[in-house]
Design a protein that fits this description.
With 248 residues, this protein is an alpha+beta fold. The chain contains three helices and ten strands; from the N terminus they run αββαββββββαββ. The protein has helices at 2-50, 66-72, 196-209, and strands spanning 51-56, 59-64, 76-82, 87-93, 116-117, 128-132, 161-166, 171-183, 224-230, 238-246.
């Protein structure tokens, strides 16, 4: 009789624990999707308020209202456009690589975070400018970078290029020369190099990692842009990486 009561109590305890874990996980998931949707709405509103696109001789002329952006977030350093504007976001820069993992552009707690420049970078003229963003399930932030790994992605010529507009109104265009999936590491996000030789070695290494060969010369006199985001779910250690060189 005592054994039966003990077994019953154990089952009840397990059931209570299961219910608590289930409720906690459900709430966590609900808050995640809430943050995800809020982030998407906020970025759409930002686009409507600060981006002005005009056509001149069949060429898009982009004007970003950085005065407005800086009034919202004084750590704004630029704007990124990529993948037919699936990536179309402000870029921020602060003293660490943690804060914007869970804070929105408006500096509010949000699991979607925002796109940010590596804290070790000083400007877009660094040899390797590194940008981070979450791989969100609704393709916001760097969620659409997974498109790069699709077989037909580069069939569209425009998909080779990433555009950066800086807060000082400079416009830089970068062309992709490497993409791959890597374990989380410090090497590919190196931002400073001892000399031209070490930078050239870096370029050669990340080129060899690429899943596709690109007919694009990259030299130690070039400036590199690196995009990094998670690959997989949960506490994944893998990263999707895209490298591009500034062409003008």
């Amino acid at each position: 009789m005592k054994k039966r009561k003990l077994k019953f109590k154990v089952k009840v305890v397990f059931l209570i624990v299961f219910i608590i874990v289930f409720l906690f996980s459900t709430l966590k998931l609900l808050f995640f999707f809430k943050d995800n949707n809020q982030s998407k709405k906020s970025n759409k509103k930002l686009n409507e308020e600060v981006i002005d696109i005009k056509l001149k001789d069949d060429e898009e002329i982009i004007k970003v209202d950085f005065k407005k952006l800086l009034s919202i977030n004084n750590e704004t350093v630029g704007w990124i456009r990529f993948n037919n504007d699936k990536v179309n976001n402000p870029i921020v820069h602060t003293s660490n690589n943690d804060y914007y993992l869970n804070h929105s552009f408006e500096k509010k707690k949000n699991q979607a975070g925002t796109i940010f420049m590596d804290y070790r970078n000083t400007s877009f003229n660094d040899k390797n400018v590194v940008l981070f963003g979450h791989s969100m399930p609704n393709s916001t932030m760097f969620g659409s970078i997974s498109d790069v790994f699709k077989k037909d992605f580069f069939n569209d010529e425009k998909n080779k290029y990433i555009q950066i507009i800086t807060s000082s109104d400079e416009t830089f265009t970068y062309q992709i020369f490497s993409y791959y999936i890597s374990e989380k590491e410090e090497y590919y996000i190196s931002t400073a190099f001892n000399d031209d030789e070490s930078f050239q070695k870096f370029i050669d290494t990340i080129r060899k990692r690429s899943y596709r060969e690109f007919n694009l010369e990259v030299l130690n006199t070039d400036n590199i842009l690196t995009l990094s985001t998670c690959y997989g779910t949960g506490n994944t250690t893998k990263r999707q990486v895209v490298h591009a060189k500034r062409i003008y």
